[in-house]
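just leaving the lab so this will be short. what follows is a protein written twice so to speak, once as letters and once as structure tokens for the fold. can you read through it and tell me how you think this chain folds. anything you notice is useful, everything is just below:
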Amino acid sequence: MSRRSVFKWFAFAEVVTWAGLFAALLLRFTGASDALVRPAGGIHGFVFLTYCVVTVCVWIDGRWRPGTGLTGLLASVIPFVTVFFELWVDRRGLLAGSWRLGTAGEQPRMFAERVLAWALRHAALAIGAVVALVIAIFLVLLRLGPPVQF
């Protein structure tokens, strides 16, 4: 999968999970049901963390400026903004091309590039490690509780 397709997919998934979370909260506030908030929040939290990991990977591989990468991370915090950010970076050509550090790609220079190059060259193992890391972070955050008590 290209940088563009991976980033587009997770930017869209972030929007969908925001919508699901808002729908669940609306049901809670109207008194219709409280049961959907926890699963919708959990799914959104997992996709949020995964979007952040993908954003950092694309940022490193695409050699984005720090302001662009930080804007991408900030976009995940504001509801529905990830798709607009994705459109913005795509129009500027920042998602074009294949993975620069992938198989038969450039030699990494910095530590972050070496880690990403290894991950791209050992995709199945890296995906497993990232999923395990995201799950671990997710479980810690679940233990801490929701960000805002309603």
Residues 64 and 94 are 7 Å apart (CA to CA). The longest helix spans residues 3-29. The chain has a mean pLDDT of 91.
